[in-house]
Amino acid sequence: MRRRLALAAALTAMAAAQTAAPAAQAGDLDALIGRALFRRAWIPGTASATANDGLGPLYNARACSACHQGLDGRPVAVAPDGRVTGENLVLRLSDAAGAPDPAYGRQIQTAGVPGVDPEGTVRRDGNGRYHLADSAYGPPAAGVRVGARAAPPLRGLGRLAAVPEAAILALAASQAGGGLRGRAHRPEGPEGPVGRFGAKATAATLEAQVATAFALDLGLSTAERPAPGGDCTRIQAACLAAVRGDARPEIGAALVRHIARYLASLEPPPAPAPDPAGERLFAEAGCAACHRPALPSPDGPVRAFTDLLLHDLGPDLDGGATEPGIAPTEWRTAPLWGLARRLALGAGLLHDARAAGVAQAVRLHGGEAAASRRRAEALPEAERARLFAYVGSL
């Protein structure tokens, strides 16, 4: 406990020293502490740590910022032999109903503390698909599917949090019975809040999203995900033996709130230059039906180009792994704001960053988006180019 209090005190002092205004608001201080935590490199615990066993035992990265460098995304780093060497792409595992693999859990962790071997490596084949290699426990169980997930951009999350739940539900109701069948997902159960964060809308709050990242990517426990071994399973004896500390969460609720506050404080990407012709084509092709240009909030329109609903996008966008209650082909409509920056960085589009540009991403849209894709592809060449340029400018 003394170690935890000392860390919090040090972070508070660091944040206070960086505060430009002498009378900083409490929310600003929270965000500054959160930024320090977001950038902090976590380390494994020691035998003397009784309340905190530290990083791992299995993990993908040592810091949140390692996966989300620059906040806007970056290309997936791949060695000449196809091995993924960066931290911004992971492999998820599940069966078609969302149940995790009995040996590997929900995610392949590519690093371990001393004495704990990584679960495997991630490699990219000649077709741009990712798979598990050098697996520590053999192939995943029968029926378990593997799917890559690229780290998403983080700007503007606070604005998405401000969209009233009633507005999301109203959009779902307006689409019921038509060609679109967008639906709200409640990750905490039928009476819980609506999910709006994550590629599958599996987190209703930024705090829940942060807790998931601590558990799966860093192997650190929180109140929401208290397992001290993170994604370690009962089959992984070395991982279980390396767990130290007691049953208390390693990352307290206050630290989770600080990081969530920092993420909420990140300003949305700048609005693109007006392009009435591009906007018209975007609407006429049907893209705006799901990628809604604006959602309401108490602080004004949220111009994120999403409806925050799950849509079935067909077999070309089958993500392999999924979550309970969500089909492998269902995705939350990805916000398009910041797309120009992501493309400029060469970060790739879609959940696994496989699309190099807008045209390729559109071509993979099927299911509920098939009619819009056909309308876009049927446009005269000049208008199609104008539409794709407009989307790429967002």
Automatic annotation (TrEMBL):
It comes from the Bacteria. InterPro entries: Cyt_c-like_dom, Cyt_c-like_dom_sf, Cytochrome_c_Peroxidase/MauG, DHOR. The keyword Secreted does not apply. Transmembrane segments: none annotated. Keywords: Heme, Iron, Metal-binding, Signal. Residues 1-26 form the signal peptide. SUPFAM superfamilies: Cytochrome c. Residues 29-176, 273-394 form the Cytochrome c domain. Pfam families: DHOR (PF06537). PANTHER family: CYTOCHROME C DOMAIN-CONTAINING PROTEIN (PTHR30600:SF4), CYTOCHROME C PEROXIDASE-RELATED (PTHR30600). This is Cytochrome c domain-containing protein. It comes from Methylobacterium isbiliense. The lineage of its organism: Bacteria, Pseudomonadati, Pseudomonadota, Alphaproteobacteria, Hyphomicrobiales.
